[in-house]
Design brief:
The complex is a heterotrimer of chains A (533), B (230) and C (112). Chain A has 533 residues and is mainly alpha-helical. Chain A has two domains: 123 residues; 387 residues, no CATH class. By secondary structure, chain B is mostly helical. The longest helix of chain B is centred in the C-terminal third of the chain and has 31 residues. The two termini of chain B are 44 Å apart. By secondary structure, chain C is mainly alpha-helical. Chain C has a single domain, classed as Orthogonal Bundle (Helix Hairpins). In chain C, 74% of the residues lie in helices and 0% in strands. Classes of the chains: A mainly alpha (533), B mainly alpha (230), C mainly alpha (112). Chains in contact: A-B, A-C, B-C. The interface between A and B is large, with 56 and 55 residues.
Chain lengths: 533, 230, 112
């Protein structure tokens, strides 16, 4: 029973290699079969250890836990495991037809699942580094998979920036190893005391956080994300935006768990980093015209909102941020997959050129509208719940409240802009022949609505927090209506006119040198904040 | 210019912080790991080379994924190097230059020696410096010299990649054998109290597998670069 | 060698990353950073008079074997990253006819 985590990691890995070796026509059925076994195993494991996750600490090889590599799970990692298994189900369904012929693609896709599940469960810092690098490499290949010029450029930008970030993460690990003689996260969490609060420890914290900031696309170093997610295939974009970026967010709270007892006050700093990420992401999203670029920049801004929640010391708000991670995974994957279908039919990515989606593909548009309502925070949809939790958590500070409100208005504006694709006469014919794609969209849409209405059992069983507050009341509807109204005005009077500054923002591209320059400034700011202040 | 000066100032700040923490680290230095490996390493794993002991026993899980990274990179490089789209700027260096005769002659002399040395390093990884990864790299270099001797050498990449994948599956299988004999994943399948000579069987086998996997992987990557665009 | 000197190697890599406008140079800068990190780890695990971590019959002071084992992993990871990025460089050259970051960007805008 305790060995199930190993199976969770190696089942997809071995399956993917078999796919590569046999290249059989019905290999995707085999993949779905292994996915089913994976789901059952994870469910059994969760049922068995529910309520006593401190017993899941598994040292591979049975060595001393300070020496060997160990895997450990808790409620949070289990919830992420279920999220990733669900996302892979849907992405595999979406690419079902494609996977029949292209086995190399299926190989990378399924291998990535094993690696990602390993990243979630690993309890060893160096092992985390290995998994991080492995994720980076597979994601690079998946980004470059279409073999267009722009995807090659996005891929090399991604791999170089992320590798330099992850190498800083490694220096942090080195410093921890030589100070404590071990790199076991749970052990370090238990032994670290406020007395250990030295400069070496702070420096290691800063370096770990620098690596994580790049991986999770925080404010100054988010520039790789829109390029990469815009250039990849839609299924891959959905996977990257929905889930793989969350690997960085997951590491953020794993690392803060490690330093829990030292008493580093990171809240304020990461609140402002998150706020800047959200504002800048929305600003760029408003100026874009490419449908995938809009969605990719919204991933940046939603990550900012997640960080605003996660940086809070209040447990309710913190788990609001975690919940938003889940909600974002659902609605962003839904939007990317829906956009993928639309792009496939219309053969263009320009928002201004796509018209009449509602008439030509009604089913897809309903799902897209569900996704848009979720991301803008409409009541009864999942984005609303987590945004409300975060909003109530930061209500005491006026300026923080208004920043969140402004970001919400920006989000509403940009999706009002995007919703113009639905109107207009029917221009293309779209017979529904790929049921698997619609099934994937349906799965994510169902997730959005379910989490929006029945979030209490979910948060109770996974995070141990019951939100007894009633979020849906008249004020919420008025709030949403005001947001939409202001958003519409902003769109009608400013954005749709396409003024010169907006064009400038659209054409602004941070070069690779400058991205690194900004990254170094970011590290120095962190050094100044955490060591000298 | 001011941009670069500012950058140097920023890096200077990082340098100062790092230097200060290095001075601090001297008093904090903790060598628990080193003492553990010195006292227990040989008895636990049966390997005189402690680096091999860590790679193949204490942290075998890492090594599995280290080999996995190579596996992914091989498939990735091959996939990216194939082109089915119009690429107009492709030029092929190797067609223009001929390898010097002196180099070819010496390569022929050195090639068997390198191959033998690579195998030596792989097989003796548990008693002397070396191991699967290092030896595999040497063997791969030896094979690559063949391309200098005969530039038109044909290689069946598909076959090599298939063998490489099968060897990776064998490595995973060998690593998890211990679960069936001892109930623990990813360690030696002989119990820790067994005779070191017996334990060495496992170490040599795993080193040989890893060595072959690394050699084949590097060979394929190099071939992909060489044949790129043909 | 001193750990502080190896940190200078890492900083040189970062200086190169934030000033060079050539993709190949950027790849090499990442390699330089990686070499710096490897040297740093090995240096911190080392001490004067420490023997290699291979046990003989007589007990001697050995250096810490863990950094050496971990660095083999890092070297393998680094070599794959280099191989992949160089292959991407070749492809970018084939598509755009240049390996300058700014020039690639400009030619992409012309295309679209």
């Amino acid at each position: 029973m305790i060995n199930i985590p190993i199976l969770l990691i190696f089942l997809p890995v071995v399956t993917s290699i078999l796919v590569y070796l046999f290249k059989w026509k019905h290999m995707n059925i085999v993949v779905l079969g292994s996915q089913l076994i994976l789901t059952i195993l994870a469910a059994i494991y969760f049922g068995h250890f529910y309520g006593q996750f401190e017993h899941t600490h598994l040292v591979l090889g049975g060595w001393d836990h300070r020496i060997g590599i160990s895997l450990a799970n808790d409620e949070l990692s289990m919830s992420f495991i279920f999220l990733s298994i669900f996302t892979w189900w849907m992405v595999l369904a979406y690419t079902f037809k494609y996977g029949k012929t292209d086995h190399t693609f299926l190989f990378f896709l399924v291998f990535l699942q094993g690696v990602f599940l390993g990243l979630l469960q690993s309890n060893d810092l160096f092992n985390l580094f290995v998994f991080l690098e492995l994720t980076t490499i597979i994601v690079t290949i998946l980004i470059a998979y279409k073999k267009r010029g722009e995807s090659f450029r996005a891929a090399i930008y991604y791999i170089l920036l992320n590798t330099s970030g992850v190498l800083l993460f490694l220096i942090g690990i080195i410093l921890i190893y030589f100070t404590f003689g071990t790199i076991n996260i749970v052990y370090l969490h238990e032994t670290l005391t406020p007395g250990d609060d030295t400069m070496v420890l702070r420096l290691s914290y800063i370096l770990l956080m620098a690596g994580i900031s790049v991986k999770s696309a925080l404010f100054p170093v988010f520039t790789w994300l829109p390029k990469a997610h815009g250039a990849a295939q839609s299924a891959i974009s959905a996977l990257l935006s929905g889930l793989v970026v969350k690997g960085g967010i997951y590491l953020f709270f794993r690392m803060n768990f490690l330093y829990d007892n030292v008493g580093i006050h990171y809240g304020d700093f990461f609140y402002w980093v998150g706020a800047l990420t959200a504002v800048v992401g929305v600003m760029f999203a408003l100026s874009q015209k490419d449908i995938k670029q809009i969605l990719a920049f919204h991933t940046v801004s939603q990550i900012g909102i997640i960080m605003m929640g996660l940086s809070s010391s209040d447990a309710n708000t913190f788990y609001g941020g975690v919940l938003h991670t889940f909600n974002h995974a659902f609605f962003k994957s839904l939007l990317f997959l829906g956009a993928g279908v639309i792009i496939q039919v219309y053969r263009t990515k320009k928002v201004t050129e796509i018209r009449g989606v509602m008439r030509s593909m009604p089913v897809v548009s309903v799902f897209m509208i569900i996704g848009m309502l979720s991301i803008t925070g409409a009541p009864f949809f999942n984005g609303f719940i987590s945004k409300s939790i975060i909003k109530y958590g930061i209500e005491d500070s006026t300026i923080r409240y208004w920043i969140l409100f402004a970001v919400n208005i920006g989000t509403a504006t940009s999706f009002i802009k995007m919703s113009q694709i639905f109107f207009g006469p029917r221009t293309v014919s779209y017979p529904i022949k790929n049921m698997a794609q619609n099934f994937a969209l349906f799965g994510f849409a169902l997730g959005c609505i379910t989490l929006g209405n029945f979030y209490i059992p979910f948060t109770e069983s996974f995070f141990g927090i019951a939100y007894d507050q009633e979020f849906i009341h008249v004020g919420a509807f008025i709030d949403y209506a005001v947001t939409l109204g202001l958003g519409f005005m902003l769109y009608h009077f400013v954005i749709s006119k396409d003024y010169k500054p907006i064009q400038n923002i659209r054409n602004f591209k941070l070069s690779f040198e400058s991205a690194n320059y900004v990254f170094i400034i970011y590290i120095v700011v962190m050094v100044t904040y955490f060591i000298w202040l | 210019m001011s941009r670069r000066l500012f950058l140097i100032a920023m890096l200077g700040v990082l340098f100062v912080v790092f230097t200060l923490s290095m001075i601090e680290l001297e008093s904090l230095y903790n060598n628990y790991g080193m003492r553990y490996f010195l006292n227990e390493g040989f008895d636990d794993t049966g390997s005189r080379n402690l680096v091999t002991a860590i790679l193949l026993d204490y942290r075998l899980f890492d090594s599995l994924f280290e080999a996995g990274i190579l596996l992914i990179a091989v498939s990735g490089v091959i996939w990216i190097s194939k082109h089915d789209v119009e690429e107009k700027n492709a030029q092929f260096m190797l067609d223009k230059y001929k390898t010097p005769d002196l180099f070819v002659t010496f390569s022929r002399l050195v090639y068997p020696l390198m191959l033998a040395f690579g195998f030596y390093v792989i097989i003796n990884g548990h008693v002397s410096p070396g191991g699967g990864f290092q030896g595999g790299a040497i063997v791969a270099t030896a094979i690559l010299i063949l391309y200098y001797i005969d530039g038109n050498k044909e290689t069946n990449i598909g076959l090599i990649v298939t063998i490489e994948k099968i060897i990776y599956l064998l490595i995973i299988l060998l690593a998890s054998l211990s679960f069936f004999t001892r109930g623990e994943f990813f360690t030696n399948f002989f119990v820790p109290s067994a005779n070191p000579d017996l334990k060495a069987i496992y170490l040599v086998l795993l080193n040989v597998f890893i060595g072959f996997k690394v050699a084949l992987g590097l060979w394929t990557i190099f071939t992909a670069f060489l044949k790129e665009g043909r | 060698m001193n750990p502080i000197l190896t940190f200078i190697v890492i900083l040189i890599g970062f200086y190169g990353l934030s000033t060079s406008d050539n993709i190949i140079k950027s790849v090499f800068c990442v390699t330089i950073i990686e070499s710096g990190v490897i040297l740093l780890f090995l240096n911190l695990g080392n001490f004067e008079g420490g023997a290699i971590p291979i046990l003989n019959d007589h007990l001697v002071d050995i250096v810490d074997p863990l950094p050496q084992a971990l660095m083999i992993t890092t070297i393998v990871i680094g070599s794959t990253v280099t191989a992949l990025s160089l292959m991407l460089c070749i492809k970018i050259f084939h598509h755009y006819g240049t390996v300058e970051w700014a020039e690639v960007l400009r030619r992409e805008d012309v295309k679209s």
